[in-house]
Amino acid sequence: MTVILNQKRDPLHPTSDPILIPSTARERALVISTLKWVVNHTSALLGPDLELVLHDLSRPDASVVAISNGHISGRGIGSAIISGPFDDKALKVLIENGEVDEACTVIADYHTRVPDGRTLDSLTLMFRDDKGRAFAALCANADRARLVQLRQLVDGLFAQPVTSANGDDDSTVSVDTMVRKIIEESIASVSTTPNSLSRDERAQAVRLMNERGLFLVRSSVEMAAERLGVTRHTIYNYLDKT
């Protein structure tokens, strides 16, 4: 059975061919299925220092549905959307821009960080349906560490030995564990006395949690409210003021 997607002209290139826009669940699934092939069958050409990650944004608790070179960020199939690198500009765009009148949002030339301190060069393509809602994200993260080491050697410097990975698989860490970690890190960022927060400190901690995509995950509002000693309604009030 042939699926015919909606067509929309590119406003930046009105004379170009129409862009195909998915409008049904089946059409969105078809796009995600096609992107899986891209991720799964290009890893041999990418080399070990470029990670490709495909997110199904309808399931933030386990959004990663395809990944190549997951050792770069420590993720695997079924990892949550909040398990990605720090300073993820694309995640910030997803949180702040619910609906946008474009087929694909491109977030290019930004940097992210992994827990061991490495900086990645990142790019994200965020695919949207005919209502402007993001339903899939294809992300590329390049680890330039080996190139930096090579440049140091060429410049005559002594390269520091690279510590090998400890073998921990972050994809096996539960979503609840990641949620609690983000909550505690956000609280620690605003106060040295995490058990006696002021109202403003609680509001600021909630803002930091939101910036890291915490509230895309189910049950995170309840967990944040319990940790801060407030109600769900209070958390939503804080979010409305961010």
Characterise the protein shown here.
The structure is a single chain. This protein is of the alpha+beta class. The chain has helices at residues 25-40, 43-46, 89-96, 145-154, 175-190, 199-211, 220-228, 232-240; strands at 6-8, 19-21, 50-56, 64-68, 104-113, 119-128, 134-143. A hairpin with a 7-residue loop joins β3 and β4. α5 (175-190) crosses α6 (199-211) and α5 packs across α7 (220-228). The longest helix has 16 residues, at 25-40. The N and C termini lie far apart (46 Å).
State which percent range the strand residues make up.
15-25%
Question: What does the average pLDDT come to?
Answer: 83
SSE topology string:
EEHHEEHEEEHHHHH
Tally of separate helices: 8
What is the count of β-strands?
7
| Unreliable stretches covering 5 or more consecutive residues | 1-5, 162-172
Question: What is the first-to-last residue Cα distance?
Answer: 46 Å
Helix and strand composition category: alpha+beta
Q: What is the helix fraction of residues, given as a range?
A: 25-40%
Shape: globular
| Rg, Å, rounded | 20 Å
**How many strands, what sense, and barrel or not for the largest sheet?**
5 strands, antiparallel
Which strand order do you get reading across the main beta sheet?
4-3-7-6-5
Write the layout of secondary structure elements.
Blueprint: E1 6-8, E2 19-21, H1 25-40, H2 43-46, E3 50-56, E4 64-68, H3 89-96, E5 104-113, E6 119-128, E7 134-143, H4 145-154, H5 175-190, H6 199-211, H7 220-228, H8 232-240
Antiparallel strand pairs: 1-2, 3-4, 3-7, 5-6, 6-7
Helix pairs in contact: 5-6, 5-7, 7-8
